[in-house]
Amino acid sequence: MSGNEMKYVQEAFDGNWVVPLGPNVNGFEKDLEDFVNTKAPLNPPEGGTLPARWACGKVFPVSAEDASASLPPVGGQRGALRGEQRRAYQTANPLNYDLLKDNAKRMRQNSTEAELAMWTLLRNDNLGFNFRRQHVIGDYIADFICLEKGLVIEVDGDYHNAPEQQEWDGYRTEFLKSLGYTVLRFTNEQVLHNIEAVEAKIKDTLTHLAQGEDASANFPPEGGQRGAKKVVALSAGTAAVHLALIACGVGPGDEVICQSFTFCASCHPITYLGAKPVLVDSEAETWNMDPDLLETAIKDRIAKTGKAPKAIIPVALYGMPYKIDRIMEIADRYGIPVIEDAAEGLGSRYRGQVLGTFGRYGVLSFNGNKMITTSGGGALICPDAEAAKKVMFYATQARESYPYYQHEEIGYNYRMSNICAGIGRGQMTILDEHIAHHQMLASFYSEEFAKIDGIEFHGNPAPEYDSNFWLNTIVLDPSLRVVGEEDAYAEVVKGAVGGAAGVTHEAKSAHTDCEPNRNVEAMRMALDREGIESRPLWKPMHRQPVYADAAAYVNGVSESLFARGLCLPSGPYVSLDDARRIVDTIRKNIK
Length: 591
Ligand SMILES: Cc1ncc(COP(=O)(O)O)c(C=O)c1O
Fold this sequence. Notes:
By secondary structure, this protein is α/β, with parallel strands linked by helices. It folds into 3 domains: 4-39 and 223-428, 3-Layer(aba) Sandwich (Aspartate Aminotransferase, domain 2), CATH 3.40.640.10; 52-219, VSR Endonuclease (Endonuclease, Chain A, 3-Layer(aba) Sandwich), CATH 3.40.960.10; 431-588, Aspartate Aminotransferase, domain 1. It contains 18 helices and 19 strands. It has helices spanning 4-14, 23-36, 83-90, 94-109, 113-123, 163-178, 188-193, 195-210, 237-247, 268-272, 291-305, 324-334, 385-395, 418-428, 431-449, 518-529, 557-564, 576-588, and strands at 132-137, 140-146, 151-156, 182-187, 230-234, 255-259, 276-280, 311-313, 339-341, 349-350, 353-354, 361-365, 378-382, 455-457, 465-466, 472-476, 535-536, 551-553, 565-568. Helix 10 (268-272) links the parallel strand 6 and strand 7. The model is unreliable at 40-95, 212-217 and 219-226 (pLDDT under 50).
């Protein structure tokens, strides 16, 4: 504790604010917003290369003179081309301009199935705005445009998957943005198999444009940096997952893709809503959702059910960022919102940007064991004020504004209490210290385990990854012999391992059909004998009996990690001396 917690808690008592909501809740949310919206130090500078996820990598000219070249200027910022430059660009080749118009006419006569489906949708009165087809802008033909709102909609055929085409698409999007247009791109698959999500996205964008906001979902606005996110403080991280799913429109019969290698709270709320989890295995570098398997799963679910999953939940397991560029690119391509489970990843960064701010929603947890605690609590990072308002509505029993209690939808009692938020405000003052401490322990463990054969420390796989190392984890080679292996699993465990809170059912046997290797259990017991708490890694959801019937796309990675891995003490009270003793104890127990 920082000592500031009591100040805020006392204020809450003095002001008789001991309910959900109140000044501490507002203050805590503001502190969290300030933190999660911090600028990314690794962002490309103006005129630098575009983020890799745009698959473009082109260097854009920065100076005014350069704008006369045939490339758009400065990372596509709005209004970056001034009037005369824009005109010069548009009229540089009048012959070309006429050809483009002819071409547009021909394309109108030879529409693809997806273009026709899009046109049917856009002509529908319920969108409330007029759209036109094939409109010439500069040397470019926009598939569909709402001139009133400056919204360009593109429907991309399969040839857009080619890297060269993606590079052009990135460049064109930048060019249109530089002229002040907002661009939405959809793939043929999205339009043909997920037209509801496409419609929702277009409506959402039109609403935000009406309010003058940027409506990017999983996609960052210009310069790769997202707009300011809003944060809603809640009673738990689990509640945040639940509300994010509701905000993404998940309901009975829907499917939601979830990382299999995680704590059950990433997954259970899908089931609360009568929806079905589709479990996706991990890759070996970050231990998080495997992008290739994700795409396989999406395609297979579309083939089997005729519709795309409603959301994707990747997890920052033990704080480690997942393969964000690839997962977001795939999610964007299929138009599926991402709910980032950053419950364990508060303060982790990817390319300098805070985890939980990449997807449409981001989940945080302030459970007692997390990077900071409110004694129990969580938060949902939302894309904008309107989404945050919607989440607050469902978090406070979904009440309509009448002088009496009128309910037209089901709501929940999920708001954070003003007392807990007071603790959170105090904790925010030491968040940076906590992160630094966890990372300091990580570098110590990493150096020490590099000297021990048969033990591997799980570190950042590349410079763009910046884990908070919420828990430091190791894997033990199966060939490593550990003292007391013969006694591993000899007894039925009573209570939860590591004294985890709550009531557990009594175990019927010492074994299940999927458990950590004997040497891992022996090492856990050896540490326990010395008063050092360690724990196995999360058991993958696809091996949990409760999810035996769930669709699963697996490659063996998470099961293998679960068999070999151990979490080590990592919190702010673990000193360097403690860490030395932990490493020594491990060394001592290797035969
Ligand atoms: C990956 C993950 N997701 C979600 C949660 C749920 O958070 P909470 O315990 O605050 O409900 C946790 C932690 O407890 C977690 O580790």
